[in-house]
């Protein structure tokens, strides 16, 4: 499908009005999250790479004109001024895997006003969704305290596209594998998964199901799901199969329901007394960072955590309070004033000191020597500045960034997010634009 | 992309074990929701049509074998037994738009065991996600009490696919339009939307922005966004533009932030005193069924509700506790016994009496004359029984079904879902299978 149709109708009606008025000067839009959801001490910037792919491919073709005309109820010929429009602008952004906080721009787009407007909807969609899921996934990695975390979300994400995003974002923050075959194949991620309860039920006994599985998969480390009927009995069956087949250290059992901590203790005891001290215990079933954290704190002898639904849909924060706000048009800084949702004008930069102490500044400000700017040019004239980086770059960035976070931001329950400050120059510009709006725009209409 | 890759790795490892063991007899899997989320008095079955499209197209080709081999870390030749496998089974389901409750099968698949297993992941994904969003959307329609509801969710759904699903599902339960251009074009839905705050900011005054919009869109009813700087002032500007251009009854103003009830009262007063009693007020901005319900109860003079993010991601219930459970294999009813997640065995039917008083029964049971069966054959030998129905069929079905729901299930806050009963025959079969498992499967392993 054409990328150009991934938009809301109002982007189109605005673009048409801009073209009609000859308002095609460059505009800058800033995409940021106004407030972090409760129970988030930080966000992990994500979605930039698919967003740049989208912008690279954005081009309005004849088929799009027909679709637009249909949506607007206007003849196609009236849409002709849009034909051939592509994204030829500049993008500055924080790279994927960067830790970010409220009000920090994830991305700034500068392009002729109509096209900068048309790309709003899908940029917001990609960056909001993916940053939400990456942030939730990152908390699972922190909760697991070094134990491997796996993505099992595909069956309940909001479509396949979201399932593949969950797999990629899990990997970005340090997951060890995914159950999702398409994502594993497409993204080159380790694929993991073995059997369901239904598999056990299809056989006349649990142990015969395990043996059949081992016969069919002679070359793989095997994981046996032991809680279909009775977890202790299932663990003993698995232990017998593992011993009789000499599967040893490559194998694992999986617990998927009930009191996981208690069952893991009992299963560990059964495995150990069978001499299978190197057989691992995998836990799954409704896990998220809160439950993983509790299990780890309780000392549950669980070696691998598989997280699914709640993480893939970011269940406690399934969306972010994100905004795509115009901050400059034709060289003039602008802002929205009404109610509580005031936004700061002008193109920006984020300066980070050690410990993620951040200042949001204007783009042209100079950094002190001990701070580093987080936003960098990623697209010029509609072309990526560099080739798409491998996922490993974002993985390494996240690992380095998260280690600098203070403990209260990393906390799973009741985390305290850092609050970036605003530079003096940005504060001065904000006051100045506010005064200008009050005098030029509000005053005459109050008459 | 090939439909066959939309699966979890464990579906594949199980399918291989089944083929290896010659276990290719027909199996029946039942897809249902175990418990309704809090604050849901009913669910609206949805996702069946895309699920049938998926099953129709499911076929394992040579490229899939390579992807599977890669995911499994095995040579492609070992996957050859899967080559050419397609979905050639039977599907019985409740049609889209049907009101359903806990434990009622949305769908039952009967197919050779390996293929019935391979389709689990994506069937669960489609039906869980779409039923969740349709159910949330339906509550918005109920809350709005006859006032039009619009879908504005695209910018924060989990990807474009989820955005298009939200537009379709909103329409299914009675929404009047969508902001999503691609969904409107593809599905033939009314597209709606006009301008953002950034549009106003791009001009030197709010009123000049409104005039420019009217010049560019001479043929459309226009909606003016009035809360960029000061809502009363914006409403007065809009009133002047509407009057001076004679836009009258076709037009509207939109409120998108702040105290919507208070602003709507003030805006209505301003419009009425300008003689614009037929200009509508549209409200948007963080709306969901709870907020719409409150605004309607407060008597806010809002004519149209645009709901977005919270509805498109089903924010208070972003997933359903759904399951795809084997209920029969090779003529033998089966069930999972462990912990609290017992499932009832055998192929099923749902019998509904007036007022949505339901009984879950076995497939072969006869209905009394005053009840109707909800599940119907929709696919035989991998082919749809009828052509894909138009969306209007599901729309009419939902409208008829929801009108039969008792008020306590329709309630927005603290709804009470109906609890279907189980037929005597189903209860008897459940006890019998439970006893068989206890004697055949559990007992020997307890040794």
TrEMBL record, chains A, B:
EC number: 6.3.4.21
Nicotinate/nicotinamide phosphoribosyltransferase domain sequence ranges: 149-297
Domain of life: Bacteria
Residues covered by the Nicotinate phosphoribosyltransferase C-terminal domain: 367-428
GO BP annotation list: NAD+ biosynthetic process via the salvage pathway
Classification via InterPro entries: Aldolase_TIM, N/Namide_PRibTrfase, NAPRTase_C, NAPRTase_N, Nic_PRibTrfase-Fam, Nic_PRibTrfase_pncB, Nicotinate_pribotase-like_C
Protein modification: Transiently phosphorylated on a His residue during the reaction cycle. Phosphorylation strongly increases the affinity for substrates and increases the rate of nicotinate D-ribonucleotide production. Dephosphorylation regenerates the low-affinity form of the enzyme, leading to product release.
Methyltransferase is among the record's keywords: no
Catalysed conversion reaction: 5-phospho-alpha-D-ribose 1-diphosphate + nicotinate + ATP + H2O = nicotinate beta-D-ribonucleotide + ADP + phosphate + diphosphate
Annotated keywords: Glycosyltransferase, Ligase, Phosphoprotein, Pyridine nucleotide biosynthesis, Transferase
Pathway this chain belongs to: Cofactor biosynthesis; NAD(+) biosynthesis; nicotinate D-ribonucleotide from nicotinate: step 1/1
Claim: Transmembrane helix is one of the keywords in the record: no
GO molecular function, one term: glycosyltransferase activity
Gene Ontology annotations for the cellular component aspect, listed alphabetically: cytosol
Ranges of residues in domain Nicotinate phosphoribosyltransferase N-terminal: 7-128
Pfam families in alphabetical order: NAPRTase, NAPRTase_C, NAPRTase_N
Family listed: Belongs to the NAPRTase family.
UniProt function note: Catalyzes the first step in the biosynthesis of NAD from nicotinic acid, the ATP-dependent synthesis of beta-nicotinate D-ribonucleotide from nicotinate and 5-phospho-D-ribose 1-phosphate.
PANTHER family: NICOTINATE PHOSPHORIBOSYLTRANSFERASE
Full protein name: Nicotinate phosphoribosyltransferase
